[in-house]
């Protein structure tokens, strides 16, 4: 059984962490299945124009599965950094470079690297049953999965240090107040309905949504001058798209645009 469940619902690729027995904690097989699923999502043949990432069962993703590879603890301690470079980092780079919007739907625990995956969403949705946890300090590790990059930029230095050092749960309602969560829902049924609505809206949007993702990811490392030049380059690309022509025509004709992502 695949540890990542992939379904295509119209133009939305719905990808679910699929090991509910361990709250979708990440093991070797899940990493392999995740990479395979992203390859399928990127294929033009399936027509996907938005990725919705969530978890099966009661959890979103509870971080690394510490029981995975049981009996190889010494190897883990020596090779934790290598494991990140070889397994997790390629996935994070793939998500960052994905040429479509990403919606994450946090339906329970988003802990450890699971919190990192949740924060990769361009729009982060959560139910009130969801929570976030920088669990690393509880087992003597440091935050990874890009957390030390993304978290202070989302919530500020002081709050990032607090979450990472005290390793306390951050309820979804508070996460919304702090800027991690965009949309908050009463329960998981409402969450999935709402997240799908957001995902469908993005999936029916213009090609420029992928370029917006690119611009915002690069703004964290660019100077002001570099960012202005990037905007000009990406605007050239957006301005030459069929969707731009359709958007202008729809505006002048006072109708809703029908974008094709081209």
Q: So, CATH architecture of the largest domain?
A: Alpha-Beta Complex
Number of strands: 9
Top-tier CATH class of the largest domain: Alpha Beta
CATH superfamily of the largest domain: 2-enoyl-CoA Hydratase, Chain A, domain 1
Dominant shape: globular
What string, H for helix and E for strand, traces the elements in order?
A: EEHEHEEHEEHHEHEHHHH
In total, how many domains does the architecture comprise?
Answer: 2
Distance between the termini: 35 Å
Q: Give the CATH topology of the largest domain.
A: 2-enoyl-CoA Hydratase, Chain A, domain 1
Alpha-beta content class: alpha/beta
Biggest beta-sheet profile: 6 strands, mixed
Low-confidence stretches: 70-75
List the strand order in the largest sheet. Answer: 1-2-3-4-6-9
Q: Helicity range of the residues?
A: 40-55%
Structure description:
By secondary structure, this protein is α/β, with parallel strands linked by helices. Helices cover 49% and strands 15% of the residues. The chain contains 10 helices and 9 strands. Helix 1 runs parallel beside helix 2 (73-97). The chain is globular. It folds into 2 domains: 4-203, 2-enoyl-CoA Hydratase, Chain A, domain 1 (Alpha-Beta Complex); 208-253, Orthogonal Bundle (Lyase 2-enoyl-coa Hydratase, Chain  A, domain 2). The two termini are 35 Å apart.
